[in-house]
């Protein structure tokens, strides 16, 4: 009897892994066979590309600038795209390299703004005005919060989108590019997620595969963080089932993960429009009073909580689009095993580890966050945070060389 049960167990696992491998192979094959935007004219959309950089010289030189230039060509050139890049405070050769990008975009006739700033983190931290966006740490020091600072910079990258809209120049999608290794084909595939119908579509990002990177922003369809940092990542059945079945649109509550495509309309909404009661969409942080409870949330998660289209068109991760923070990380998630990035062992191990974690998992952090949120809500009427699912038990402040936990 025991031998029979063991045989059935092995057979079940073998069939399940083979089915998933087959689904993933079909998914990867359909992606590889899809015509590019430039070759097929598949997209008539106008794309606004936005990015910001800090000490990214090596990446810019070796990968990023070429990928952006290839992408502008792939999308149809000057009349179809706008490129907005903002850099601030770098002490490597990022400014020099972005100057070269500026000149090359100009030569190619691609509308763009490449802006560099000499303002450093130290300059920001030494400002005399230490009001909104600042916090008193447990060591009784007044420090500049990281997320309000990043939200301000991200909003700067979309200012031309707003200004051009007021002049009658319209864009369909905004493509946010992080400091990652990617190809033009990756970006085009992301734009085509779910047939182009989405509030937002995100890649998967990796710094040290097989661990995905952006745990701060990714939330499954139930609004929870991952149960594991390796495939299949999610605890929510809806997200996990779509991922395992190889779909290009895995429903989530929020994501960022390297490259993000979003519908442009919410960013340029009229403040008095009945269609957009909350006004134009902008990046933001949680309030300083909530952050004082040792809570934080990514501006890249809150943007989906605030976006009215998230509830109608949906937010998705496209697992076919995988990007890396190094070339090695990118290569490790592409064509490793007969065209698949996941081995038989990774699939088998991932399925069972996910089941075990879902069955035995208990999130103390989730309870701590919920308790602190309730305390803040009880402090005064009107205290509410629609992005409550983005909250984590951290306090993050700006540092001279980056940022720090306190």
TrEMBL record:
Q: Which Pfam families match?
A: CAP59_mtransfer (PF11735)
Q: Where is the signal peptide?
A: 1-17
Taxonomically, the superkingdom here is Eukaryota
Keyword flag Signal: yes
Q: Which UniProt keywords apply?
A: Signal
Matching PANTHER family, A to Z?
A: CHROMOSOME 8, WHOLE GENOME SHOTGUN SEQUENCE (PTHR34144), EXPORT PROTEIN (CAP59), PUTATIVE (AFU_ORTHOLOGUE AFUA_7G05020)-RELATED (PTHR34144:SF7)
The protein here is known as Polysaccharide export protein
User: What is the organism field in this record?
Assistant: Ophiocordyceps australis
